[in-house]
Structures are given as C-alpha cells and as structure tokens.
Amino acid sequence: MLPTRFDQARPFLTLGVVLLVWAFVPLVVKSFTRVTFFELQAPFAAAQSYVQDLQEFWALRTRPKNEIIEAGRDLARLNAAYELRLQENEQLRAEILRLENLLKLPPLPTYRFEPARVARRDFSGWWQRLIIRKGANHGIPVGAPVVFVGGVVGRVVEVHAYTAVIDLISSPTFRVAATAEGDNRPISYQGGINESFKSPRGIIEFVPVDIFAAPNQPKRLVTSGLGGVFPPGLTIGDIVRLEPSTDGLFKSGEVRLDDRLGGLTEVTVLVPLHPEEF
Fold first, then answer.
1. Both 174 and 251 in a single domain?
2. What residues contact 118, with CB distance under 8 A and at least 6 apart?
3. Which of 118-132, 143-157, 251-265 shows the lowest per-residue confidence on average (mean pLDDT)?
4. What range defines the domain where residue 231 resides?
5. Quick check: is 105 in a domain?
6. pTM above the 0.85 mark?
7. I want to staple 191 with a disulfide (CB 3.0 to 4.6 A). Which of 49, 101, 174, 244 is the partner?
8. How many structural domains compose the chain?
9. Cα gap 255→236, rounded to integer Å
C-alpha cells in the first residue's frame, strides 16, 4: 500500500507539535532540563579525555630511552630557567607592594592558578568553546579568566559540578577591553567569525588614528585591565590590519590570534582570591 501524504508529513507534524509545546514550557523547566542533560553528558566527555591521556602515556612508554634522557635534560634546563623567573617574580611583587604602600594605591586583584585539562572542543560558526575537566568541585566561578603560555584563552561562561565551559577569545560572543602595547588608550576587542582549518582571528574597534600596524609590522594587543576581569598586560594577539572607520574618528582592524588555541590540551583558570573585588 502506497503511503499517503499524511503519512509522509507525519514526522514534520510531530516535530512541529513538539516545538510548539516546548515554546510554552516555562523558562525554569528549560534551564533545569538543559543543565541536567549537560551533567549527564559530561562524564562521557571526561571519560574520553582520560582515555586519550592514557593512550598518550603508553605511546610515550614506547619511545627509546635516549629520547627520554634528552627530554629529561631539556626539562631540567627549563626548570632552572623557571626557578630564576620565580625569583625575579618575587622581587617584582615586593617592589609593587612597596609602591602600593608608598602611594597608598589599592592592591591589584589577586588570583590562584587552577590548571585543568581540556575534555572537549566545541567549534561552530556561532561560538568557539572548550570544556575542561574541572568545575564547581574546584571552586571555579563563572566569569573567571583563562590563560595559557601564549596569553589569553577565554572566559568561563558556564560552571557545572565537574566541568566548566570556556568561551574562547576567537568566539564572536567574546569581548574585552584591550590596549596596543606601549599605549594606555582602551580598544574594544571582539572575536570574529572563524572558518574551520584556518588561523583564528578577531576584530578591534575604536583604535586611535595614530596607531599603525600591518602584516609585516604587527603590533601586539594586550588586555587593559579595565573591567577587573583580566589582569593587564596579557597577550591577546597581533594587530595585522588597520583602516579608518566610517566616522573617521577611529580605526578598526583585524587581530591575528595564536594558532595553538584550537589544539590546547591544558589551560589555567585564574580564580580570584577575593571575588568581592570584581
């Protein structure tokens, strides 16, 4: 028996009824359903991440001893360099504290560093996000800045029991106040529309007209510290293109971000020690 038009349209009618009913569901129920679904799904993403770590561990065990010895020597050199940097850092902290007391300035926001492994990447045309294997169980709050060795990674936008969602600086939903290196005038930075398998980019607005940059002469873009979320001086990317805006009062342009953003395996969350200061 040939299917009738009603039989052919039945799946679409069912979908339409479900969407109509969902539209009238209270917002509290929708939020609870979404959070519950995420919490049920999170253990699978974390388990997959742990399996990948185990695979990498056994892959490293198969390497020759000579490579392990050379890696140990390189690690010892890095540790020695980091020890020297730590001593310099302590001296700078003491000098900053002395100047704050001398000038009676308010103290800068302080953080504790919470390293976390990346469990999953969620890249699309609308957002670019990472899911890490730490959440409320490690005291990570919503809005905390996230960094890595190359500078800013993004901002925590969702916190669950054992995971957290990070909005990357390449995401169109990410905004932050920035400055050009060597200049203290604020610039508005926003993530851009990034295509797959291409270098991440961002856009800037309200750039002073006397700032210049080009692909062969890029200018570093850093956080300004305004807003109290990100500490000042963290690298965002390199300004590679500037052109006059439509009003002629400022410039707008393009920022080249770190290519390692899409392949990060571990990040550091800056958890504020005194949340009331933010």
1. yes
2. 49, 130, 131, 132, 133, 264, 265, 266, 267
3. 118-132
4. 111-278
5. no
6. no
7. 174
8. 2
9. 8
